Records
---
Amino acid sequence: MKRSIRVKWGELKVGLLITVAIAVMLWASFSGSGTSIFDTKTGYMGYLTNVNGLVSGAPVWIAGVEVGNVTHIKFVNLDSTRQIEIRLRVKKSITNMITTDAGMKLGTIGFLGDKYIEIVPGTLTKPRLTPGSVIPTVPGADLAAMLAEGQKAMEHAHDLSDNLTDLTGKLRRGEGTAGQMFTNDTLFHEMTKMVSAMTVLIEEMQKSQKQITSSIKDVARNLDTITTQINSNRGTVGKLISDPGLYNNLHSSAGRIDSILARVERGEGSAGALVKDDSLYIEIRNLVLRVENLVSDIEKNPRKYFKFSVF
């Protein structure tokens, strides 16, 4: 006869607690990490044209901080820009950053790493998006686009390499002005001659500069000598500057000339009469008229004044 196995209620409670804990841990591991299962979450949604390997449970970041996870991904094909619907949950404590001008984009951890959703915070003063609203999609760093840009850059680099190869070939063959400069030594010889000529010119200029400097010094010495002579009252210029006799004579002469002019102005003396009395002017004028008449009469009747006889 088999013996019945009795399970105590206390052991049953422990087993149930362990089972619930394991289930919660499994659920948390599949629902995303970085947030507590006890945090209050708020759900939003968005649309992408290509998720590039994004999976459910992928993290959601804001400003580099994990704040939630992706809960659902499915095809909807609403239009060319809304082909895949993404549902996500974030901490309720950061919903003030998800405003009407916030955005959502797909990010990559590393160059070829796991994908995540990054929410670009909006302006805090603007209204918040209501739970369940669509977060607008903003352009992100797409790996395919980066590879395409890299391919274009490689093509440009290849074209640049071909151009450089062609250019160096022309230089090596001496084509064009630059090629002649690299292959023809005539320019080198001409430049050498020019440098030599410039050297000679500079030497001549230095010599001329020395001569000019010497001439200026001689002029300065001569001026110093002349100044010394003037200061010592030697020579005519020294006398003119230091001796007051000439000034006094000039002053006296000016006084006499002024007195003479005053007498002339008053009509005194012969000079005054010439200036003030016009009778002499009238007599001279009459004399000139008589002389003119006489000359005119001689020209008309020369026999009246001159008699010619051969014998």
Note: DSSP finds nine helices and six strands in the chain.
---
Amino acid sequence: MRNEQDSDMSRRLRGQTICKLGSQVKRLDRETYRVKSQSSHGVYTVVKKEGVWACSCPDHTYREVKCKHIWAVEFSGKLRAVIIKPTVIEPINIHACIYCRSDHLIKWGIRHNKYGNIQKFSCKACGRYFTVNIGFERMKHNPQGITAAMQLYFSGESLRNTAKSLKLIGVEVSHKTVYCWIQKYVALMDKYLSQIKPHVSDTWRADEMYLKIKGNPKYLYALLDDETRFWIAKEVAGDKMSREAPEYASHLFQQGKEVAGKKPLTLITDGLHAYHLAYKREFYAHEKPVTKHVEHIAWQKDKGNQKMEAFNGTVRAREKVMRSLKREDSPILDGYQIFHNYLRGHEALEGKTPADACGIEVQGENKWLTLIQNASRKRKV
């Protein structure tokens, strides 16, 4: 028994040594690593299956022990979690008087409006009372109704069905009012979230999908992070085979570098020539590390583009309900990008959002409310 404990401790210490070397552990995605062998020139694959790590080395395969390579992967994951400091977006709570900035506040009843209740506060220092409705000032309807409308719409309902559903909670509005809410708050959140940098992986995927805008055929170019499913950038183009196609793809990659603050080590696309031309313009360089472009992909293993096709399917489902967009700069695409990244949990991420996987945590039961309040406060500051 003692010999087994000593052997396990020895493997753990050797795993720490492998992790400290840095270049010995290569992370392919959240559940796949490659670890160099210490005794030969080989490489072992460490994969998580049903929540349990498995290694291709003989020590784990035949003896069924937790080998030094698995220990190295676990230490590498803990080290990465420490290095990446999460960005937390918290719900706004009132801590100071809006008049004298004193923190001696007490709740002082409820203001009963036609479409909801608003908390009143009283300041013990100056004796004045006030209400705060951050992000929804001068709005006729309450924040719960507005955020419910946005959740319903970006979950798949049409504008008219969203308006009908709101009647069930006592909010009577037209479909045009719902669209105005989306237009206003998507622009507000988009400006705020553009200042937050996501920690995406080093492998990105790009693809294009056909859609209609005001009845005219267009293409939506999208750039997606392979590991976190974070929708990094988008570009609406007229065609994918014209002379302008490389310009659209280049602009897409430029946005990606600006949002992520870096370029990828691997870019996965289909065989569209515009991507390769844009790759040479934006990502290729003679200095190391050199971005690798994987094109003409085979539909197998990690070189397939199934993740991108699955993403296109979700956008297609949203666009089908709308029966085409009305203009290229529609707030609907920006809003769906926010919904995809910050509010919609993904099964492949164990219910987390892509933002969670990128180190951006949006707290609160109503994440729409949290984002709108923080975006509104940031604008005023």
Note: The longest strand covers residues 203-213.
---
Amino acid sequence: MLIRGASGGVGMAAVQLGHALGANVTGLASSANLVFVQEPGADRDFDYATTAPSELGKFDVILDTVGNRLAEYRRLLASKGRMITIAIDSKAPISALMFIAVSTIFGGKRVRFFGAKFSAEILNDLTSSVEAGALRPVVDTIYPLSEIRAAHTALEKGGRRGKQIVTLL
């Protein structure tokens, strides 16, 4: 399993859940976050800035939280592999959407854009994972609502470690 953006909030949860389910987890993150990605269970980690996709090998599952270079990473799928992206590159949204559309039409169900649909069952499963210690929420920074601009700027910069939280009270 390859996780692009492994040090972010969603990536960290995916690393932990993949590890708990017995997957061989490979994380892509910035060089500053490589050790951080290993702690919750990444078996291998690579600096996305210095590692070409072609150096990574094949994967049964690719979770993309970044939203760019989708075609390059799609080439890493094993013959029956699946790729899920939860992000669209804001600098090239048309090309990313076209890639997903073409992959869906001509590639079967190998590439999908994911949008969350929560249910009580899913939330109960996540709660059980947290209580069992298989999933540990990772928080990078907590901002008061008055600093929401700073929170958004930090998120756009990338390189975060876990979730950004904005408190309303």
Note: The CA atoms of residues 49 and 130 lie 32 Å apart.
---
Amino acid sequence: MPRSASVALVLLVALGCRYAPREEPSGAVLYARHCAACHGTEGRGDGPVAPALRRPPNDLTLLARENGGRFDAAHVATVIDGRSPVVEHGTREMPVWGVVFEAELSDEAYTGYRAIERSRSLTDHIAAIQVE
């Protein structure tokens, strides 16, 4: 096959194969999927699984209030993805969502980065449900 024909074939294949990034679920969707069972649909710690837990889940709507009016997004994200264990709570009943997200994304590119993005989306959702 002549070189020009090879180049043309490669271009045709490349143009026919368009990259379509998978749409990431929103923080609200991730929250409903992974958090609401324990923390409740509104984040108040009253999900249907809450009574079965040894410790009641946190009321996520009060995180800023309990931190002097400041929502600590960096800390919340590290608790979600498991980089920051919640030592003062004893054993960790909350799943390490960073590992869960990486497993969900294992067949895709940039798994670790995208798992952190999901933790950030969840963090943004939790920031949006803070009460004054």
Note: The helical segments are 3-16, 27-34, 36-39, 73-81, 97-104, 111-128.
